[in-house]
Design a protein that fits this description.
single chain, 204 residues, mainly alpha, Helix Hairpins, 2 domains, two-stranded antiparallel ribbon
Length: 204
């Protein structure tokens, strides 16, 4: 359930909650330039502040996951106040395991792209990011290490070159010619000289 008390950072950047990190960055650059106080025609200090705040959260994989949990109630407890029971590893279906692998690789990919000087994620973030215990994720970690998609370091998990290639081969379709990116919301961004922003039914 959507939490109305939480600021809508996706709306601030005019993107879908499914938007990849590349779209987040593109949207931020366009809107920051559009609302920047130095822009005499379209400058808006308050809108600029919201865009910057949204980008700080959504560009960080760990902060974004925590925000999604709070905003959309992905890990919300039942009405009786008790935490939902954690499923045993044997109860996880095959598709759940594959989805966990995909999400873990995507998170590590995003960290490598956005924080190349600190590309690792500690194991302790697994419950918060993916909603399962570290014990439940052991098979996933074993598989990804066996495929040489990730490495374990003193600081945690790091994606490898093979892992990056796997993510980009299987997940990224952001630059298909003559198509509109589905990760964008109803407002579309036109990238090019001048970095223009166009929205449906508005004069932006």
């Amino acid at each position: 359930m959507d939490n109305p008390a939480t600021a809508d950072y996706y709306e601030a950047l005019q993107i879908s909650p499914a938007a990849q990190s590349l779209i987040v960055t593109k949207a931020y650059r366009l809107l920051a330039a559009f609302y920047h106080p130095d822009n005499k025609e379209t400058g808006d200090p308050e809108a600029f502040r919201k865009v910057v705040e949204a980008y700080r959260v959504l560009s960080d994989p760990v902060r974004r996951a925590a925000y999604d949990h709070e905003k959309f109630g992905m890990l919300s407890s039942p009405s009786n106040g008790r935490k939902p029971p954690v499923r045993e590893p044997a109860e996880r279906r095959t598709e759940d395991e594959r989805e966990l692998r995909r999400q873990l690789l995507q998170a590590l990919y995003n960290v490598r792209r956005t924080q190349p000087h600190r590309p690792s994620l500690p194991l302790r973030v697994i419950p918060d990011l993916f909603g399962c215990s570290i014990d439940d994720a052991q098979f996933t970690l074993w598989y990804l290490r066996g495929k040489k998609f990730i490495e374990m370091t003193d600081d945690g998990m790091v994606i490898t070159v093979a892992g990056v290639d796997h993510v980009e081969t299987n997940e990224f379709s952001l630059e298909r010619p003559a198509s509109v990116d589905p990760a964008l919301s109803t407002r579309s961004f036109i990238l090019g000289t001048g970095d223009r922003v166009e929205t449906e039914g508005s004069g932006l």
